[in-house]
Design brief:
alpha/beta, globular, 6 strands, 242 residues
């Protein structure tokens, strides 16, 4: 059985995976969306589906964008055979003067949630996430919807979690086959954080991760061909690590 658990990042939701889901399901993958429930969608803490034939070979792939891998239960990551990390990170706030400025900016974003500056904060964040592409190319998400009190509380809590990240997502197995898709023009994840992430992965994993870094592509990875490229990478008929 081939299955995917996909987890969006901060301020996103599962609707962003629609083109990915169509692509993967067409090639025999069972798709499961995680959902934080920031907007109108109910929270979903995803778990692996029981295979119809436990004796058959199993492929369990996690695809996570940005904070997404940190939002999954460690047991979910621990059971993954393949992990795709899209514009993700380990420690988000670098231990540097740049990190102090970034932390102050995150505190400002947190304070804006639920206040008169909320809409402007989301607009700025989404513009930076899409850049250098136009933010109009982003799928609709909670940042462009009416938010509930519970959704705002989850946004604050997950922003705190992002600020406090210190290393790789909990549960990430050293035996997994890993693909890192780094955004070459990422305006959200600092260059120092991206470098540290690759270093930590190389030290943790039993096999070196594959690393793609498309130029002139921002944090949102607005690349229509990316789902197909990732699906083909996952479907490569190679010996399983471990």
């Amino acid at each position: 059985m081939k299955q995917v658990i996909a987890m969006h990042g901060w301020s996103g939701d599962g609707t962003a995976w629609a083109p990915w889901q169509r692509c993967f399901q067409h090639h025999g993958w069972h798709w499961i969306n995680g959902e934080r429930g920031y907007g109108s969608r109910s929270p979903v803490a995803p778990v692996w589906s029981a295979p119809p034939d436990p004796a058959a070979p199993q492929r369990r792939a996690v695809i996570g964008h940005s904070l997404g891998p940190h939002l999954l239960a460690p047991v979910v990551l621990a059971e993954a055979t393949d992990i795709v990390l899209l514009a993700s990170f380990g420690r988000f706030v670098p231990q540097s003067p740049q990190g102090r400025a970034l932390k102050a900016g995150l505190q400002g974003m947190r304070s804006a949630i639920g206040g008169p500056g909320e809409a402007a904060m989301f607009k700025t964040f989404l513009k930076r996430a899409a850049a250098p592409a136009d933010a109009d190319g982003l799928p609709p998400g909670p940042g462009s919807q009416a938010l509930t009190a519970a959704g705002r509380e989850r946004l604050r809590s997950d922003l705190d979690r992002l600020t406090a990240t210190t290393g790789l997502p909990s549960g990430l197995p050293a035996t997994a086959r890993v693909l890192v898709v780094e955004a070459g023009a990422d305006a959200i994840v600092a260059p120092d954080a991206r470098k540290l992430f690759l270093k930590d992965l190389a030290n943790h994993l039993g096999h070196a991760p594959e690393h793609w870094c498309p130029n002139n592509v921002g944090h949102a990875l607005l690349m229509p061909e990316l789902p197909t490229r990732v699906r083909k990478w996952l479907d490569q008929d190679i010996e399983r690590p471990g």
